[in-house]
């Protein structure tokens, strides 16, 4: 069973990049990061990726310490072959719709085919936070859900 997405305020840790070739299903990511674990599990189950990275970037934004509200994902899957970028993003968003409607405020997506990954095996970098979420009431509501 996947963890509840209501645990939005947990400790922050950037995930370790790990190719799925070395990922064993019984390996459980840090239980103190339930949203990150849920994202990783759902993307793995749906896309059977050749490579997956899930990074919690909440610490880079104007949210309380321990938040799990801002993520960057890199999904490399043969299921993306022949699909335009917008369709790949829609598929990822669909898989994570529950998290996006509750705790996750921002999700940066890189969805690549194995061929694209072979040509450019890099993860994009996020720009620094400009504090835009400070005035966004939905962020506070989502974070409040995690504290209740």
Name the descriptors.
148 residues; alpha+beta; four-stranded mixed β-sheet; 5 helices; 4 strands; 15% strand; globular; disordered N terminus
Share in helix? 25-40%
Secondary-structure class: alpha+beta
Low-confidence runs (pLDDT<50, min 5 residues)? 1-28
- Mean pLDDT across all amino acids: 77
Strand content: 5-15%
Tell me, briefly, the overall form. globular
Number of strands: 4
Main sheet: strands, sense, barrel: 4 strands, mixed
Placed side by side, the strands forming the largest sheet appear as: 1-2-3-4
Task: Give the number of helices.
Answer: 5
Order of helices and strands: EHEEHHEHH
Q: What Rg, in angstroms, do the CA atoms define?
A: 15 Å
Description:
The protein is of the alpha+beta class and 148 residues long. Helix content is 31%, strand content 15%. The chain contains five helices and four strands. It has a four-stranded mixed beta sheet. It is globular. The N terminus is likely disordered.
The gist of it:
This protein has helices at 34-47, 85-95, 97-100, 114-119, 137-147, and strands spanning 18-19, 51-56, 70-76, 106-112. The protein is α+β, with helices and mostly antiparallel strands and 148 residues long.
